[in-house]
Specification:
Elements: H1 9-15, E1 19-23, H2 35-47, H3 54-70, E2 77-81, E3 85-88, E4 91-93, E5 97-102, E6 110-119, H4 125-143, E7 155-160, E8 164-170, E9 174-178, E10 182-183, H5 187-206
Parallel strand pairs: 1-9, 6-7
Antiparallel strand pairs: 2-5, 3-4, 5-6, 7-8, 8-9, 8-10
Helix pairs in contact: 3-5
Length: 208
């Protein structure tokens, strides 16, 4: 079945024999938010600059927030936007954004994706999670050393419409969705949660 034919999260998980659970796995640590960045986000929200289109949401909210956290991890991780992710000789996906290990060969090389970020279209979070999970599965397949591997390192996922942010983890046999939903109105809390996802991504790729 093609991923775009799935209508519910349980359908895509059942296809790959992946269990589902919800609980709070995000662990908070304080992230310093610059006054300038905070004022830029406040301006975007107060002027409604993100409301004109889904592209505007990505450009004015999702990408700037990701970039702000990425700057803390740029020595180890690379932030990619709409970069094709090849997981077989003839198959690839194009996540909205992804975080991967910084390649020793240079920043034009995609190496070990560990965090997938998907923008919500038409306010349909269910559909966004289907897309995100499918891209997470593609990421873990692209990371495998051998086609005979039966276990995989965790892949992390974020789904957002710019204002609401949801988090998940895909492991070998289960998918966990963070029970708490974060919003950009509480920017410091949101950045702390995203920082946790970056930190875990860094740990995973450092072990591979």
């Amino acid at each position: 079945m093609s991923y775009n034919n799935y209508k519910k999260i349980d359908e895509v998980l059942r296809e790959f024999d992946i269990s589902y659970a919800e609980h709070n796995f995000v662990q908070m640590s304080e992230i310093q938010v610059s006054e300038y960045f905070e004022s830029e986000i406040e301006l975007t929200l107060s002027e409604g600059l993100y409301k004109s289109s889904e592209s505007a949401i990505g450009e004015t909210l999702i990408y700037p927030v990701l970039r702000e956290i990425w700057k803390l991890y740029k020595k180890d991780l690379q932030l990619w936007s709409h970069q094709p992710l090849h997981y077989d000789d003839n198959y690839f996906v194009v996540p909205d954004y992804l975080i991967a290990r910084r390649s020793h060969m240079g920043n034009i090389f995609l190496d070990k994706p560990s965090l997938i970020i998907t923008g919500v279209k038409h306010e349909n979070f269910e559909e966004a999670w289907i897309d995100c999970i499918s891209d997470m599965m593609a990421a873990r397949r692209s990371n495998r050393i051998s086609t005979h591997e039966s276990t995989f390192a965790p892949i992390f996922g974020i789904v957002s419409n710019g204002v609401i942010w949801e988090f998940g983890i895909l492991d070998t046999s289960y998918f966990i969705k963070e029970a708490t939903i974060y919003t950009i109105q509480n920017l410091k809390l949101l950045l702390s949660a995203i920082g946790y996802m970056f930190e875990q991504s860094k740990l995973v790729v450092s072990l591979s």
